[in-house]
Design goal:
7 helices, alpha+beta, 34% helix, three-stranded antiparallel β-sheet, 247 residues
């Protein structure tokens, strides 16, 4: 049984591995002694810069310099697991808070009953990749480009949820060792409040159990938090996301 600290590390590792995998497909993943980053042009994702240590003024200066050299808007995720006040330091250095997520994990112990007709199909070709990208943009309000999806199909598992033949949602599965991360659970606004997200999660958890994974991790928005708690996920830490203010 992993400790809370180990679960946090496992969650962060899965998430950053996903970004690294996407960036590497475009030769745009880079690692420095202080931070890692990736920037995919003509896509709004992942375009992240992240650290595995507390932020201080010296690292903030290096981050600002690097982000200033990059063409695309870059999101800086900060794991809220340190004692020092990172938020105040960032805000005093022209970073603006944009959104928050909750890092969660589950050690699955049982299969879930499935009610409804939703089924999940993995994206395998350019037609599916285009549909997935469109569904994601409708669901989240920003883009993971068709090129990004198409170029990473063999490394990242993209899924489309269908109900009665109609595409109703998106998902990503990403493996790191004995852990499977669930990402990008998205339902377009016109399809919400019909129980699709719940069905998608149950199907994915059952699939992950069948494949023998020890833990499941995810990062929840406020919209999905109660659903994940109901399914047994536990909260471990916060991720606060920032961008450098336009000047």
């Amino acid at each position: 049984m992993k400790t809370r600290a180990e679960l946090i590390h496992t969650n962060i590792k899965n998430l950053t591995s996903l970004w690294e995998t996407a960036g590497a497909a475009f030769d745009s993943y880079h690692k420095t002694p202080v931070f890692e980053y990736c920037e995919i042009h003509a896509s709004e994702w992942p375009n992240r810069l992240w650290l595995h240590q507390p932020i201080n003024q010296e690292t903030v200066d290096l981050i600002k310099q690097k982000i200033g050299e990059m063409a695309a808007p870059i999101t800086l995720p900060v794991w809220d697991i340190y004692d020092d006040n990172q938020s105040a330091l960032l805000e005093n250095n022209d970073f603006v808070f944009i959104f928050e997520q909750v890092g969660m994990s589950l050690k699955p112990s049982h299969f879930f009953d499935i009610q409804g007709d939703v089924n999940m199909e993995r994206v395998t070709d350019s037609t599916d990749a285009k549909l997935w990208s469109v569904l994601f943009q409708k669901s989240f309000g920003y883009e993971i480009s068709l090129e990004t999806v198409s170029k990473t199909l063999s490394e990242i598992e993209y899924y489309i949820a269908y109900s009665d033949g109609l595409a109703v949602g998106t998902a990503i599965l990403h493996q790191t060792n004995s852990v499977m991360g669930i990402h990008a659970i998205g339902i377009p606004p016109e399809m919400r409040r019909r129980g699709y997200a719940d069905q998608i999660m149950r199907l994915l958890i059952n699939k992950i159990i069948k494949n023998g994974f020890e833990y499941i991790t995810l990062q929840a928005s406020n919209m999905g938090l109660n659903l994940y708690l109901k399914l047994g996920f536990e909260e471990q830490f916060l991720i606060k996301n920032y961008r450098l203010a336009q000047r």
